[in-house]
Amino acid sequence: MRKKLCFDCKKSFNLSSDDLGLSNFKCPECGNQAIVVTHRFRPPKAGDNRKWEVVKFLVKNGFPYQHISIYEPDRHGIQRFIKYARYPENMIDAIEFVEQHKLQALKNNG
Ligand SMILES: [Zn+2]
Q1: pLDDT of residue 93
Q2: What is the DSSP code string of 82-93?
Q3: Separation of 110 CA from ligand 1 center, angstroms?
Q4: What is the mean pLDDT of the chain?
């Protein structure tokens, strides 16, 4: 399941059947371009501009709320999956997150 997200309205919408097969998504409210994120995205409150800036930053850097895996080496030095990363909610953590997980960033997003 995916959602589309409009940074102008600061809202997310479930993809409708009209959206299937499209590569460009429009906001159903303002008609501007919407960005596709995963169902894991939880929109901040509309007035919470700081959190929205964090969302924008993450999406622009290739993190539309896909699963990000954290690996740690086991005792043989082999990287093992540990858990999925939690998405940050403030800019300081977001900058660190993007740097730390840049190999898992999606290209050409947003
Ligand atoms: Zn909109």
Answers
A1: 98
A2: EEEPPPPSSHHH
A3: 15
A4: 91
- Give me the residue spans of the domains in the chain: 2-104
**Residue 81 CA, ligand 1 centroid: distance in Å:** 37
Whole-model pTM: value is 0.85
Measure 6 CA to ligand 1 centroid, in angstroms: 5
pLDDT band at residue 110, thresholds of 50, 70 and 90?
very low
Whether the CB-CB separation of 31 and 76 falls below 8 Å is answered with: no
pLDDT at 18 over 80: no
How far does residue 71's CA lie from ligand 1's centre (Å)? Answer: 37
Give the Å distance between the CA of 7 and the centre of ligand 1: 7
Classify residue 72 by burial, with Cβ atoms within 10 Å: 0-12, 13-18, 19+. exposed
How far, in Å, from the CA of 17 to the mean position of ligand 1? 18
